[in-house]
Design brief:
With 91 residues, this protein is mainly α. It has two domains: 30 residues; 61 residues. Helices cover 90% and strands 0% of the residues. Helix 2 packs antiparallel against helix 3. It is elongated. Keywords: Membrane, Transmembrane, Transmembrane helix.
Length: 91
């Protein structure tokens, strides 16, 4: 009888641990709108920084570095715009 109760309590504990782990995995894969917008703001800042630094470096005559930084900034900004549009369209 005691072993049966112990087994049942262990099963309940493992079930709740499994459910908690699955909830955490779901939340990690599906961030809230607030978290997604915060990430978009950070990503947008990084994109603008890359564009600015690329423009300055290009102005100083370092064509290779300037173009690569500008290209990186454009890519980051483009991905950011795409993500914001995707988040906004989910409603």
């Amino acid at each position: 009888m005691r072993n049966k109760r112990l087994l049942e309590s262990t099963k309940r504990l493992s079930d709740s641990t499994y459910k908690r782990a699955m909830n955490q995995a779901y939340q990690a894969a599906h961030p809230s709108r607030k978290a997604a917008y915060r990430g978009a703001i950070i990503s947008g800042g990084i994109g603008l920084l890359l564009l600015t630094v690329g423009g300055v470096v290009l102005g100083l005559g370092q064509t290779g570095w300037g173009l690569s930084l500008l290209g990186s900034g454009i890519v980051v900004a483009g991905i950011n715009v795409w993500n914001v549009r995707r988040i906004s369209s989910k409603g």
